[in-house]
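Entry 12.
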Amino acid sequence: MDTHASLIFCLVVLLAALFTYSNGFQDGSSVAASAIGCRALSPLQAVALVSVSEFMGAVFGGSAVADTVHSITSWPSRPDLLPVIACALASAIVWNFVTKKLGLPSSSTHALVGGILGSVLVAGGGEKYIVWGTANNFIHPTGMCKVVISLFLSPIVGFVAGYVTFLMIMLVLMRASFRVNVLLKGAQWLTLATLAFGHGANDTQKAMGVIMLALSAVGVSEGSIPLWVRLLSGLAMVSGIVSIAPRIVKRVGTGIYRMRPVHGFVTQLSSASVVFFNSLAGGPVSASQVIASSVMGVGTAERKKGVNWLVAQEMLITWLLTIPGAAMLSAVFYLTAFKNLNQLL
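Predicted 3D structure (tokens):
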């Protein structure tokens, strides 16, 4: 690896860590929102619990999602891949910081996928380096199809899971007294930790997959994700969670539906199930999408008119704009700045 490639590789690793940090305050805020919104945990308690659980998910959460991210481009293992990756990460980071400023629970995963698409399409002169894959009847999808199916089906599944789970829980608690709220608040220590572990396992692996691409670009072949990559991703995620975004917490925790302990418990339980399944299957999902959709499902099951559909509409528009917006931003970054780096390689 020559000096220029080494410097750009270090830049990619730094950007991957910064992206994971921005993912932490973006999606991590959504993870903690339901417990804070229904007052089951204080903000300090929620942040501490989510941070520890997310870090554990990064270290012990496997590598299925990282393998999926690694497989969406067929760009040869050459140093000229490094500026392409750097461009994708930079656009996703900018998108995350802008949406944080606006208080919108945008999808970090959508931003990264859009960034990768934009830079690879522009740098590769077309779609020849994009692995579109196949849907395979939604059973064993591959390539970009797998990413798209996971991203767009998971919110629907989250909504249905929240709706059905709430009805089932209310059936069980039909004759329960008000004291059951104490039990439901206590149970959220477990459900929130489970959701955070699943999110840590899923979202940190996106940065891991990008770093693995960078390692292959400089000729370093790793059979598995190195421990230093896991630790770096986990620490970056925790740093983002510590700097939690209050506006996103308020938007998800109380802006969609007025949360009580039972709503927080059901939201975390249903969201954790969806995120965990996708982490095991290698499907990259957006935790903010799944959680917000679960809140909508819970609210619809109890009182449809109580759901703030204007907030839901605003978030839907943001989600739909993220992939094309990040792709355009990534393309601009590559054409104006990152393209020149390839002349050094």
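Annotation: The longest helix spans residues 180-217. Residues 23 and 108 are 6 Å apart (CA to CA).
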